[in-house]
Amino acid sequence: MVRSGVGDTVGMGERSASEARAAGVHLPWVLAPPRVRAWAGSLGRVLGARDASGGFSPGCCAVLELAGGRSVFVKAVGTELNEQSPDIHRQEGRIAAALPRLAQLPRLVDTYDDGDWVALAFEAVEGAMPRHPWEDGELRAVLENLARVHEALTPCPLDDAPVASERERRLLDGWHTLAGMGRPPAGLDGWFVRHLDRLCELEERAWDAVAGETLIHGDLRADNMLIDGTTTVFVDWPHASRGTPLRDLIGWAPSVALEGGPDPETLLARYRPAAGGGGPRGGHGARGRPGRVLRPARPAAVARRAPDAARVPGRAGPCDGGLAAAAHRVALSTAPGRTFQQ
Fold first, then answer.
1. 167-171 long-range CB contacts below 8 Å, 24 or more apart?
2. Hey, what domains does the chain have and what are their CATH numbers?
3. pTM, whole model, 2 decimals?
4. Which helix (H) or strand (E) holds 55?
5. Dist. CA 332–CA 177, nearest whole Å
6. Which has the higher per-residue pLDDT, 314 or 161?
7. How large is the C-alpha radius of gyration of the chain?
């Protein structure tokens, strides 16, 4: 599927229909409020507009062809379409404005905000989403480009960027939520009840383990990548935060496996930070302390430290794809191994 612009798709291009991704329904550009379209016109005389598909925002997403041969990708949304989406666009605009000029990063052209509707204009990017199933060479190139991005964004260029550990504390608190219920939900397997205290400990350590000094993307997926030759542009940055690059890799790893790529262990082992640090083996490590870095552990070592070798009740063996091992690496890679007892 050929993508044009930042964060959405236009047409099918070279990709087959079988590779189409799930997506929401956007408002056509012609139905955007006149004031928003007038702002877009201030960027240059608009010769044509191509509505984009893909992504999940209910707002407008379109590539505008401007006089002089220039193209911009515009995304716009108002509270009438979704109360939360304008704030997401505002956050993306704030982060995008702080990104350095780098071939792998989107370039913000202008923003519009009238208190209700918010719009962002980026330089259009002609590219294609990664092929599914993942091709080895393409995945290697994406990892190399990601390492360059992490290097360029270390130290974090945004002084007041959200802190990854604080965000994880809000989003990944399932074990603490269960523990606070007083009585376990009906049907909860006894294994989880017996080990709930330990699971809460691991959850807390995972919050701290994502700390770092890199501006990380926070929402890496194939549909947030545009490949143009050997360059991968990573788009859609509203969920960026200050943390360790390892968080980007672990968050992305499950979808890579589901899309026909390698398991999480293999993916993390293939990541090589660019010269100068910024990756899991360089820069600040867990809890933001220099010299204490997160290092990918060997699968066997992780399995020995994981609860019951990451065994889930109702399954005959360990979790498929190594996802449990990858998750445990965040919590355990900076501490001595500890095991569960059944």
1. 167/218, 167/241, 168/206, 168/207, 168/210, 168/247, 169/207
2. 2-128 (3.30.200.20), 136-227+236-332 (no CATH)
3. 0.76
4. none
5. 21
6. 161
7. 21
